[in-house]
Amino acid sequence: MLALWLAFGVLGTASHGQCGFGDCLAPHPTVGCEDTGCCADVCSFNPVCCQVEWDASCVEAANFLCEICGATLTGSCFDIHGTASCADPVCCEAVCAMDPFCCETQWDGLCVQFAGSQCSTGGGTCGEPTAGDCHVAHGTPACSDLTCCTVVCNVAPECCENSWDFICAAIAGSVCQSGTCPVICNPDGATHIEVCDSLMNDCAQAPTALPAGTTCCGDLSVISGIADVDVFGITLADPDGDGLVRASISLESAGPAFAALVSDSCASWAGAILIAQTELCGPVLVRQCVPAGDWKIVVAPGLFPNPTDADRYCPDTRYQIGLEVDQVCAPVCGTGEPCDVPHAAPGCADATCCEAVCAQDPLCCDFEWDAICVKATTAACAVPPPSNDPCASPTRIGVGDHAVDYLGASLDGPDLPGQCAPGGAENVAKDVWFLVEGVTGPVRISSCPGIVHPTLALFSGSCGALVMTDCAREAIGTCDAAAFGTELNLDAFCGDSFLLRVGIVAGTAGTMVIRVEATDCTRCLADLDGSGAVDGADLASVLGNWGGNYHAGGDANGNGVIDGEDLAAILASWGPCP
Q1: Phi, psi (5° rounding) for residue 36?
Q2: Can you tell me the distance from the alpha carbon of 521 to that of 171, in angstroms, rounded to the nearest whole number?
Q3: CA–CA distance, 179 with 292 (Å, rounded to integer)
Q4: Distance between CA 343 and CA 120 in Å, rounded?
Q5: Cβ–Cβ under 8 Å, residues 260 and 297
Q6: 207: closest CA among 232, 187, 180?
Q7: pLDDT per residue as tens digits for the range 15-47
Q8: Cβ(472)–Cβ(512) under 8 Å?
Q9: Are residue 364 and residue 461 in the same domain, yes or no?
Q10: Closest CA to 441 of 544, 521, 514, 501
Q11: DSSP letters spanning 41-107
Q12: What count of other Cβ atoms lies within 10 Å of the Cβ of residue 197?
């Protein structure tokens, strides 16, 4: 049917006023459907859908014409594509709740990443012949190469839990190489002093020191079934005195190898408290909080806990080990900075929200609370909207700096002209409202956007009949005391008020401050020279600029003109300012 419509141009004038009810991807006896854009597109091809009923042919057309969650046109949720939305409606809605850009503009790499963390597919089994190519993204979890799959899922568990997306395929391309893997030693790191194919620095000898924050390169040969084992001594200091230290061990090897953190280098490797295992190319990083004190790291060829007995000769025996130490061992949820602010430390202040986010993305509690973690709070934490989310309840502001809280906000403002919104008005995903009042004279409104992309718009009138008077899009600003980014300028007088809409572009996270610079109507306005008192100098300013406007400098009551009311204000306020 769709092919006939496209081929013969079965067009007509559809009654799009019937749009707005019913699932666009399910037949129903009424006309139109709930997505007005999709409804209009379908009814342009088949007017019957808006005149008689939304039947199976209308659904077929919607699947191939509409960029809405669940439509066939949109493609897999686990592949990047140029259209908005994706074909799995549940997954699509979950992702778009976190990042509306995915359903409004394009299903980009970040949308795929969110799908990988949010959309469960029931898990998969590494090595299943039908699990898919490890080097090609696919919507099901796991892949068919057992070894490669295991290594990738050790790095990114979601690849075996949710889907084998393009990130999993990229990891596979890096670590799942055949043959030996070249190890490029850090030029600033140390080199283990050991003649290749010799057995030195083993369990019977004094360990080599490996200070925190350093790397060391060495060789792990196996000759006549005897494996070379290297032992490093480390001291984990505890500056914060809590008894615990977080140790991070990285290991890269030309062939299968492991590094084990043990208290005694040869007593029992099986009881190691922390293990880094490499099977294929690519570095492996493991980290864990352990008791402070002296430890040893055993590095050996093969699979833990048994070194290989298969001969390995130089130069295919190179490895590099690294050690990092920090004090992040106390619970990270419930401490630190707010959950809606990106920061370098892991975790955030709201324990419940933090735990919900880290259940989806453990990196937020292991490494840092970045912009992706902030975005995840929208869906994971059931964030309530800010009080000034709707136009009808703006936050009242005057002269000074004002924080903008838009986490959980929705979009209720009108579309803006293209010059007001970066990338076009359709990219503004949410907004909050302010009522600016109590200011007079030249007024400058600016923003310090951080990593968000704001648009500012001024309106007169009521929320139901807004009239835009000015707008400004994102600009480059230093965000210091002297210069903010986006800027609006206007004239105002005491008693005036106007609505300020702060719009946020889709796909952004962070914090923002709005700065209002003007004369404050609540201060001693008649003190025209700012001396702290209303006196003869202020009177002279009024008389000298009589009949002018506030630009002349004698507006003692902030109404924009210099006349008898200003003279009265001077006389009524005479003396020291309160």
Answers
A1: -65, -35
A2: 60
A3: 39
A4: 28
A5: yes
A6: 232
A7: 444 677 788 999 998 899 988 889 999 998 899
A8: no
A9: no
A10: 521
A11: HHHHH-THHHHT-B-HHHHHHHHHH--STT-GGG--TTS-BSSSS-S-HHHHHHHHHH-THHHHT-B
A12: 14
Is 245 within the bounds of a domain?
Answer: yes
pLDDT digits (tens, 9 = 90+) for 98-115: 778 888 888 887 788 788
Domain membership of residue 299 (yes or no) is yes
The reply to whether 379 and 447 lie within a common domain is no
Q: Give residue 360's pLDDT.
A: 75
Token pair recorded at residue 188: 């600033």
> Whole-angstrom Cα distance, residue 158 to residue 491?
55
Q: Rounded CA gap, 388 and 411, in Å?
A: 11
| Of 522 and 508, the one with more pLDDT | 522
| b/e sequence 133-168, b meaning 16+ C-beta within 10 Å | ebeebbbbbbbbbeebbbbbbbbbebbbbbbbbbbb
What is the SS3 string spanning 291-333? ECEEEEEEEEEEECCEECCCCECCCCCEEEEEEEEECCCCCCC
Give residue 537's Cα distance to chain centre: 56
Cα–Cα dist 170/164, whole Å = 10
Residues 6+ apart with CB under 8 A from 326: 245, 246, 248
* Burial class of residue 398 (count of CB atoms within 10 Å of its CB; 0-12, 13-18, 19+): middle
Residues 562 and 510 in one domain: no
Segments of 411-529 assigned E as strands: 428-437, 439-448, 454-460, 467-472, 487-492, 497-505, 512-520
Flag whether 111 is in a domain: no
Q: Which pLDDT belongs to residue 320?
A: 93
* pLDDT tens string 395-452: 999 888 888 887 778 888 887 776 675 544 445 778 899 999 888 878 888 887 654 6
Q: What pLDDT is recorded for position 62?
A: 94
Instruction: Report yes or no: 72 and 81 within 8 Å, Cβ to Cβ.
Output: no
Domain-located, residue 159: yes
Amino acid at 452: V
Do 484 and 444 belong together in one domain? yes
Query: Considering 342, 358, 383, which residue would you say is the last residue of a domain?
Result: 383
* CB neighbourhood size of 424 (10 A): 15
Instruction: Supply 353's token pair.
Output: 């929200």
Q: Which residues of 16-49 are buried (b: 16+ CB within 10 A; e: fewer)?
A: bebbeebbbbeebeebbbebeebbbbbbbbbbbb
Of 60-64, 74-78, 376-380, 399-403, which has the strongest mean pLDDT? 60-64
pLDDT of 203 > 80? The answer is no
Task: Say whether both 200 and 322 belong to one domain.
Answer: yes
Q: Is the dihedral of CA 466, 469, 473, 476 positive or negative?
A: negative
365 with 427, same domain?
A: no
Asked if 74 and 87 touch (Cβ cutoff 8 Å), the reply is yes
Alpha-carbon span 388 to 435, nearest angstrom: 10
Whether residues 336 and 321 share a domain: the answer is no
Determine the structural domain holding residue 342 and report its residue range: 331-383
- Look at 9-23, 173-187, 434-448, 488-502 and tell me which has the smallest mean pLDDT: 9-23
Domain check: are 335 and 322 in the same one?
no
Number of structural domains in the chain: 5
CATH number (domain holding residue 213): 2.60.120.380
| Rg of the chain over all Cα atoms, to the nearest angstrom | 33
